[in-house]
Amino acid sequence: MKFIADTEIPIDPYDYLGLLRSQGILAKRNSEFQKAPLAGLSREGIWVILNSQYTDALALISDKSHIVANPLTEGEMVELEIEAKSMLLNASGSFFSRLAKFVFYFSILLFVVYAGYQIVKHT
Description:
three-stranded antiparallel beta sheet, mainly alpha, about 55% helix, about 120 residues
């Protein structure tokens, strides 16, 4: 994934994003990643998702008639987006499942320690 800053894009970034997608280049606006914990996201711009399409994306800035070497079909772009969301959902689900188990077992441990302390204290 490579970044193109808004300052490098002479047209409206959303128009440029539409141009990229219409030419088969998978890209996302920076604001779509604002909540992600990655460095450098305070800058405004476009992320070209596939590194192999970055040079074509840059070429389209100066030449809208540039022919993209390996364009994706709309179906391929949708499939990649769905796969990425699914992977993120699975990863976050796994994290929260482990977190819930940890909290559960830690709570049991605290209860056992507290109950043991109360038994020792009252005997």
